[in-house]
Design goal:
heterodimer, A: 240 residues, alpha/beta, six-stranded mixed sheet, four-stranded antiparallel sheet, B: 223 residues, mainly alpha, 9 helices, 82% helix, binds adenosine-5'-triphosphate, binds magnesium ion, ATP-binding (chain A), cell membrane (chain A), amino-acid transport (chain A), membrane (chain A)
Chain lengths: 240, 223
């Protein structure tokens, strides 16, 4: 579903991703962990071309992102993204946040889009908030709306970049719960997170990144129970 | 104090009041036209200044440099006596005034526009792009509506400045408010009556404008 081959990414002189190769299969939940600055966000953002790719190849459902012919915006409708800072549109109601791209990009008519949006809001437990503005929501509620907004495009893949890192501890659970549900329904997901409990419980595979490389990659029990690499061990001993 | 009050020649004010009011209308018209043309031109220049290609930014940068870095007074003279005769004879001073005010305000509005767009959090455009919107859609549906709200106060400020600065067009005999003030002074050889009346009318105009703008800001805030 996602195929990354020898991906390299530099910002000017700084090489942030050094040689990343990884496959993500349909319905798989891949969790990316690693120290700050190791390139996790950059890696994720290369998967929907929020960052340009310096070298190597990324294939999404067989479509080559580095190919000039590939329509980026079309790819992005297939690959949803959820940000640490939610990035809801403050000038639009919760409902309009979700329907905007549905009507403008997918060209669904307003009625159809609103029906779908309300179903999604119900799914994330916020149907009664449809008409309010994001300002009046708690962090956890905002992030659930952001997830619903991304799901509105009916993507085949969802990318999460530390979706709970900006939340007060008591709100982390409600967001993880929505993500768990999504995983259960068979969504293909790549999740950057510091929530090791989530990685263990929901992740099919864990990738440990450090200094622009994938240092270790394995099933959660293996990574957490029996890490092979010294750097993985050092990192886990700090966060667990 | 009593003395000054008694010495005011009200007849001058009464005599010239119709002209002052006509002049005030010209003042309002010129500033309004100036700010509207300035808005359109300023948007284009603002966009030009944000071009990713350095060389393409250059003419826009220098446009802004020139019109912000030289006195409006000089610009008015250059435009009225230099530029406008190329297009019309005789030159209509109101037209010169409008052109000068438009070109001048465009430079300031370009900066207001650019600052407004830049003030919107990068995450907004990113989120919109991540949903598959193209650049135009991101601008139109997400960035501009938010930027516009922030542009209202500085744009209002620019309008007020323009309204006052339009008085400089009196020197090229555009029949705006101050022009009639000068005319009255010339006719009666009196200073206080015409100029204080003119000042008072400017004050009424700017205060009204301030009030309207505050109202608009509050409306946008609660939306
Ligand atoms: N737009 C950019 N321009 C220049 N350098 C960047 C840019 N984005 C990221 N970097 C640099 O790339 C490196 C990796 O950043 P990245 O955000 O991918 O790390 P991360 O693993 O997500 O870290 P964190 O856990 O703190 O989010 C860092 O050194 C960062 O400073
Ligand atoms: Mg990051």
């Amino acid at each position: 579903m996602i195929s990354v081959q020898n991906l390299k990414k530099s910002f000017g002189e700084l090489e942030v991703l050094k040689d990343i190769s990884v496959e993500v299969n349909p319905q798989e939940v891949v969790v990316v962990i690693g120290p700050s600055g190791s390139g996790k966000s950059t890696f994720l953002r290369c998967l929907n071309l929020m960052e340009s790719i310096t070298d190597g190849q990324v294939l999404i459902e067989g479509k080559d992102l580095t190919d000039k012919q590939t329509n980026i915006n079309e790819i992005r409708t297939e690959v949803g993204m959820v940000f640490q800072q939610f990035n809801l549109f403050p000038h639009k109601t919760v409902l309009d946040n979700i329907t905007l791209a549905m009507t403008v990009v997918r060209k669904w008519n307003k009625r159809e889009a609103e029906e779908k949006a309300l179903k999604l809001l119900e799914k994330v437990g916020l149907k009664e908030k449809a008409q309010v503005y994001p300002d009046s929501l708690s962090g956890g509620q905002k992030q659930r709306v952001a997830i619903a907004r991304a799901l509105g495009m009916e993507p085949k893949i969802m990318l999460f970049d530390e979706p709970t890192s900006a939340l007060d501890p008591e709100m982390v659970g409600e967001v993880l719960e929505v993500m768990k549900q999504l995983a259960k329904e068979g969504m293909t997901m790549v999740v950057v997170t510091h929530e090791m409990g989530f990685a263990r419980e929901v992740g099919d595979r864990v990738i440990f990144m450090d200094e622009g490389y994938i240092v270790e990659e394995n099933e959660p029990e293996e990574i957490f129970g029996n890490p092979q690499n010294e750097r993985t061990k050092a990192f886990l001993s700090k966060v667990l | 104090m009593m003395n000054i009050w008694e010495n005011i020649r009200w007849d001058i004010i009464v005599d010239y009041l119709p002209f002052f009011l006509k002049g005030a209308l010209v003042t309002i018209g010129m500033s309004l036209a100036g700010v509207l043309f300035g808005l359109a031109l300023g948007l284009l220049i603002g966009i030009g200044k944000m071009s990713p290609i350095a060389i393409a930014r250059l003419p826009f940068i220098w446009y802004v440099n020139f019109f912000r870095g030289t006195p409006l007074f000089v610009q008015i003279l250059l435009i009225h006596f230099g530029l406008m005769p190329i297009f019309m004879t005789p030159v209509n001073p109101i037209a010169s005034g409008v052109v000068a005010l438009s070109l001048n305000s465009a430079a300031y509005i370009a900066e207001i526009f650019r600052a407004g767009i830049k003030s919107i959090d990068k995450g907004q455009a990113e989120a919109a792009h991540s949903l598959g919107m193209n650049k135009l859609q991101v601008m139109w549906y997400v960035v501009l509506p938010q930027a516009f709200k922030r542009m209202v106060p500085p744009l209002g400020n620019e309008f007020i400045v323009l309204l006052k600065d339009s008085s400089l067009a009196a020197v090229i005999a555009a029949p705006e408010l101050l022009y009639w003030g000068r005319a009255a002074q010339g006719e009666y050889y009196r200073v206080w009556e015409p100029y204080l009346t003119v000042a008072l009318i400017y004050l009424i105009l700017t205060l009204t404008l301030t009030y309207l703008l505050n109202y608009l800001e509050r409306r946008l805030d609660t939306e």
